[in-house]
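Tip: read the tokens left to right.
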């Protein structure tokens, strides 16, 4: 038996294992940097694309609170109205839709963005996967080109591979990223008198691959106050709804925030 070949085998195995480890280490070592200085931005147009009323507040409510005022303009697109999200069987989808739209408007009052412009695409809640994706993409492209936002917040479809498995969130993430990308290509979905537009800043929330971290401690109470307006989504109103009732418990709101974002006092984003 050739001794050189014996010596070569462990070396080959070592190189092979190194090849497996190094790319993983590169991912772990990726630095998370501070988010842009939102609290000094002024006269900007901000667009948020949210699958349901509440994802906007949970995912980037702190950033939006820091951006409020200073002549910044906020536009929020809800792809669905979350009209099927209740455990109360005595409610109808029409009733929940009405409640959710009122709660979303109230949440921006509480957040300090009373002039936020809320746009409802009204695709069916829980069935966004089956809504016409091309139609949604074209509507978003048209909106982006017309309003030319300085920054877009949307759900993260994943930088390396697709991660989301929660209904509506996966479709929202993909269709938002596709629309943001398509907006810059003039031959895609051309409209008379509307030019292509490359969005300068795209920040994805609900991310598993964060590259930016934003401290929101000084506006966290406002974020919670805004989320509390979505009363119908938390106990006891989510089980048995009454037009008036106590606000949600902080622990229930924070449980959802941590479930979806992993933290309360910071918000994480993946910068495109
Ligand atoms: Zn949602």
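Filled-in amino acids:
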């Amino acid at each position: 038996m050739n001794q050189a070949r014996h010596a070569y085998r462990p070396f080959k195995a070592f190189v092979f294992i190194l090849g497996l480890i190094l790319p993983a280490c590169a991912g772990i070592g990726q630095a998370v940097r501070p988010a842009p200085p939102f609290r000094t931005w002024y006269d900007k147009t901000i667009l948020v694309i949210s699958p349901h009323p509440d994802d906007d507040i949970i995912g980037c409510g702190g950033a939006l609170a820091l951006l409020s005022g200073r002549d910044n303009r906020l536009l929020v697109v809800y792809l669905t109205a979350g009209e099927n999200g209740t455990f109360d069987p005595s409610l109808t989808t029409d009733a929940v839709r009405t409640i959710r739209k009122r709660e979303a408007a109230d949440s921006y009052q509480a957040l300090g963005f009373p002039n936020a412009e809320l746009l409802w695409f009204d695709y069916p809640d829980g069935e966004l996967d089956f809504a016409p994706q091309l139609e949604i993409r074209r509507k978003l492209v048209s909106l982006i080109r017309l309003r030319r936002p300085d920054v877009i917040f949307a759900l993260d479809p994943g930088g390396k591979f697709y991660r989301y498995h929660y209904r509506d969130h996966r479709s929202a993430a993909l269709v938002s990223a596709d629309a943001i990308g398509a907006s810059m290509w003039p031959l895609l979905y051309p409209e008379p008198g509307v030019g292509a537009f490359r969005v300068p800043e795209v920040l994805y929330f609900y991310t598993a691959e964060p590259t930016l971290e934003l401290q929101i401690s000084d506006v966290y109470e406002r974020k919670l106050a805004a989320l509390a307006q979505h009363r119908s989504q938390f106990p006891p109103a989510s089980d048995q709804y009454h037009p008036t009732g106590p606000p949600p418990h902080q622990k229930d709101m924070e449980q959802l925030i941590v479930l979806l974002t992993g933290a309360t006092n910071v918000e994480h984003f993946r910068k495109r």
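The two ends are 55 Å apart (CA to CA). The helical segments are 3-28, 55-67, 93-111, 133-147, 169-182, 220-228, 250-261.
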